[in-house]
Amino acid sequence: MNGDHRATRATWGFPGIAARAAQTDATGRIPSSNWKDIVDSGYLRLFHEPGIGGSGADGPTQAAAMEGLARACPGTFWAATVSALLCAKLISTYGDAREHERLLRPLLSGELLAAFAVVEKSAGSDASTFRTTVRRAGPPGSGYVISGEKARITNAPVADIAVTLARLEKAPGDEGPDWCLAFVDLRQPGVHRYDIPHMGLRAMPWGGVVFQDTHIAEADVVPVPFEELAEGMAWGWLLISFAAVAIAESALSASARHAGERVSFGRPLAHMEGVQAQLAESRAQIDAARLLALRATCERAEGRSARDLIAMVKIYAAEMAVEVTARAVQIHGAFGVTTGHEIERLYRDAQMNVIGGFASNRLREQVAEGMGVGPAVYHEFDWLTATGLGVAPAGVQGLPHPAGNTA
């Protein structure tokens, strides 16, 4: 199976996008030629059924395509896959198949680009702090308006549609969900957007969007119980895992090549035991992450949740890529920290996957909860009183003395 999978990956090489990756990173813009290559390849259609314009690809094909595009340019991969996979899956899963075909088909053909507007300035993944609100514009049938600001959002500066997580203002007595997904047209009055400079994945459009009583069609506000949203957002964790695997694979390939060519102290770096150990460790970690990601993709493609598995893959793969690119810097020496060098770019890109989607520490809590240890809920506690450490020794002022005085 391993050999077959490697052969399949080779068919999704995106050589034109790979050749432009350094320039794409330097300019911070995805060229139109990248988008043409993606559309022409059929990549955007892979993750969906033919009924809505997809091609219904199986798990191994989806996995191979994701890694292939991420190998070519991680920033381009993020922009395209957040739109075609994460956002389109959220629309198809929670929306109405017939009503929202008008959004899905253009997303899968590349005519439209989507952003998943979830994070706000006040916090990252802590939804309890989110303040963006959707409310009715008037009587039923008149649509809704949305107000608030979303920040640090992939594709926000250039997207046509924002799949937006928001609080839902309800009428008295309404027992429905307190949250909704709003499919907001960003090409209308009441929308302000801005760029945010970022360290890695520079080609990926990244920024914020401000809604000021922005109109939303009646059918494009979908109430969703909050606890169900993690199921849909797991698609984002999966795509991040493949970005990490691809970045690590690119770093390892460059390291092996450099180690074979670079001669130091009378021998190639590849003949040094320390370098060999680093290359071998990276090889083992990357293949382990890839197999986990492939398994998760196959389960998802066959209709199973695999949410906990995807969370584990995201944790392991993202942190693995940081370790592998750090080793690559060591193997390349000063080259690895030189602006414009492939390893310098990959090292920056790897960091973004750790915090992207859902921070690894929060995902660890979710994995632990899935093991039955209970939710990570904070309760006030006092360890000092029971131990006596909250009582000052004799002669120390400021804390109660055991005898009841403060002398």
Task: List the keywords.
single chain, 407 residues, Butyryl-Coa Dehydrogenase, subunit A, domain 1, Butyryl-CoA Dehydrogenase, subunit A, domain 2, Butyryl-CoA Dehydrogenase, subunit A, domain 3, 3 domains, two-stranded antiparallel sheet, 13 helices, 10 strands, disordered N terminus
Task: Characterize this entry briefly.
By secondary structure, the chain is α+β, with helices and mostly antiparallel strands. It is built from 13 helices and 10 strands.
Walkthrough of the structure:
The chain starts with a helix and ends in a 20-residue tail after the last helix. Strands 1, 2, 3, 4, 5, 6, 7 and 8 form an eight-stranded mixed β-sheet that branches. It has three domains: 112 residues, Acyl-CoA dehydrogenase/oxidase, N-terminal domain (Butyryl-Coa Dehydrogenase, subunit A, domain 1, Orthogonal Bundle), CATH 1.10.540.10; 112 residues, Butyryl-CoA Dehydrogenase, subunit A, domain 2; 147 residues, Butyryl-CoA Dehydrogenase, subunit A, domain 3. It is 49% helix and 14% strand. Helix 6 packs antiparallel against helix 7 and helix 8 packs antiparallel against helix 11. It is an alpha+beta fold and 407 residues long. It is globular. The N terminus is likely disordered.
Helix/strand layout:
Blueprint: H1 2-10, H2 15-19, H3 21-27, H4 32-41, H5 59-72, H6 74-94, H7 101-109, E1 114-117, E2 133-136, E3 144-154, E4 161-168, E5 179-185, E6 191-195, E7 206-216, E8 221-223, H8 226-261, E9 263-264, E10 267-268, H9 273-301, H10 307-332, H11 342-355, H12 360-373, H13 384-387
Parallel strand pairs: 1-4, 2-4
Antiparallel strand pairs: 2-3, 3-7, 4-5, 5-8, 6-7, 9-10
